[in-house]
Design goal:
Strand content: under 5%
Number of strands: 0
Shape: elongated
Radius of gyration: 32 Å
Helix content: 40-55%
Largest sheet: none
Order of helices and strands: HHHHHHHHHHHHH
Number of helices: 13
Amino acid sequence: MDLEELEPIEGCSEELEGAMKCFRDNVTKSYTTNSRRWSIWSLLRNHFDKPIEQWLNNKGAEDFFQGESFSVFCKSKGPSEADLYISQRYKRYRGSIPTPDIDTLRNLLLFCHLTPPKSTSTFFYSKTLTSQYRKGGRTPFCELCWKESQAQKELDSGENFSLKSDRFCADHDPRDPYSLYRTDHNNRQAFYVNLRTITRTGYYYNIKDFEQRQHSRWVAYRMTKLHIRNKDISVMDFLLEGFSQSEIARRLGTSRQSILKIKKKTESFITFWKEIRTSSYPIDPEDLTVWESFDQAHPG
């Protein structure tokens, strides 16, 4: 039933007619049955509970809803169950309650139950033909690493679509209690900070290319696993420029011991950072042999 069809039945009581007009003036398409901010039941309570209570008192049918308010009655029962209940109770009060009043309540009840929530599960979008056109323009990659999402792999393989996640790969599936999701989720912010830092260096000259995007995410993920952060990158930049530990400590406002600690921590990564900082482009980073040993790098 559309809002335009929601009209008081001709001949209904003044209380219901006035309440219906106020309800129509305030209801919008944003009101749904499950919304917290725009709850159709709250709107029903504000505009109908008191008028209907007064209307039932005038008709001598105070126990029509057996002590419940009209909004609570509508919310607690499905449309078929509520309609059947109203029909049964109407038989008892047929002499005092006119038929147009009951028909008005039925129409109102039907309208409220035909405003379901409009939100759609994120898993729905894995059914679409390509991840590039999903809601929000999702990338084909897992949110926490460089691997393709489960839905993207499914699409690439040509398998029939399912409800696989288009946000995470199998290794980071939140529904799997043994996945890496709970470990790497805490490092999400650091991962994206490292990814932005790498992208801005210009090493990956064609960041729209799939292979280069994936490689940059892989490097950012490994940096995160090595606990490389912005301060560590600043120290590496100074070391590559030939500054001493004392000079670096003075420029960064910290101690020599702190710089020494960072130097030892980044010892296994600084070779790769030099490659990023000093290589001339255009190049194809995924083909460079310098990255072959990157998986064996470990925190200092």
